[in-house]
Amino acid sequence: MIKYIGCLLFVVLTACNNSEKKVKANKSNLEINKTGMNTLGLIGGTSWHSTLDYYSTINQSVNDYFGNNTNPPLLVYTLNQAEVHRFQIENKWDSIANMLTNAALSLNKAGAQAVMFCANTPHKVYNSVQQNLRFPIIHIADVTAQAIHEKGLKKVCFIGTKYSMEEDFITKRIEENNLEVLVPEDKDVINELHRIIIEELTYGKIEAESKTYVLTVLNDLINKGAEGVILGCTEFPLMIFEEDLEVPIFDTTKIHSMSAVDYILNK
Q1: 0.90 exceeded by the pTM?
Q2: Which stretch of DSSP H or E encloses residue 112?
Q3: Is residue 155 helix, strand or coil?
């Protein structure tokens, strides 16, 4: 009888301890949820160098906001850049859209309430991806246009991959915000800018000769009336800095990253 009572007492104490642990765990979760942060998914890998800038900027900004080491509920899905480039060359944008859609759905399943493409060029298929989702994709052009308006500018220039310079899936969306956007018109210039991105910057290579070339192109556009410069490829900020030019630079990597912070913090 004494042994039986002892065993029963052990079971009761164990159950009480487990209940106490659950209460503490739930209390801990409530404390975390008090921050009211939204969970965001990043679709990166194009390239991972600029994706790293997104991740670093977002985390540091949230740390700064709370004044401690509070990190945001951030999820990252890395695409295979080599496969993306192959589909671009083969003009298989539907395949790229499928990659992005699957990545977005995976992030949503993991808890992301919204996603963003960590590059400009994937926005070519923004509409076809967004129509397959029940949650938002934060568009890089919308937040860039807002940043330009905040500077009080009306006319800017844009450089990026050949896809975003030859087509208007980024520039038109910016222009729809009552802005004028200049882009290089010379085919050779467009091809060289694209080559610098694909063959150098996506590998993290910063060549002095290439930087000089890019600055020459930008200064030519400034001489044509551009009041500011949009670095419309998330790799260009690895090479071009504010001190390099006499007009404001709109770093789409940083602008997009800060819009992510606003979303996470419910601003």
Answers
A1: no
A2: none
A3: strand
Residue 100 lies in a domain: yes
Tell me, what CATH number does 90's domain have?
3.40.50.1860
**pLDDT in single tens digits along all 267 residues of the chain:** 444 334 433 333 333 444 444 333 333 333 334 468 999 999 998 778 788 889 999 999 999 999 999 999 999 999 998 999 899 999 999 999 999 999 999 999 999 999 999 988 899 999 999 999 999 999 999 999 999 999 999 999 999 999 999 999 999 999 999 999 999 999 999 999 999 998 998 888 999 999 999 999 999 999 999 999 999 887 898 899 999 999 999 999 899 999 999 999 998
Start-to-end C-alpha separation, the chain: 64
Could you tell me if 133 and 146 lie in one domain?
no
In a domain, 22, yes or no: no
Residue 9 lies in a domain: no
Domain with 243, as residue range(s), is 141-251
Torsion of CA 155, 160, 164, 170, to 10 degrees: -50
Q: What are phi and psi of 249, to 5 degrees?
A: -105, 135
Ordered alpha helix ranges (H), the chain:
2-33, 48-66, 81-89, 93-109, 126-130, 140-150, 162-166, 171-175, 187-195, 208-223, 252-264
Distances (CA, A) of 215 to 173, 175, 185, 207, 254: 25, 23, 16, 12, 20
> Where do the H-state alpha helices sit in 34-154?
48-66, 81-89, 93-109, 126-130, 140-150
Q: Within a domain: residue 11?
A: no
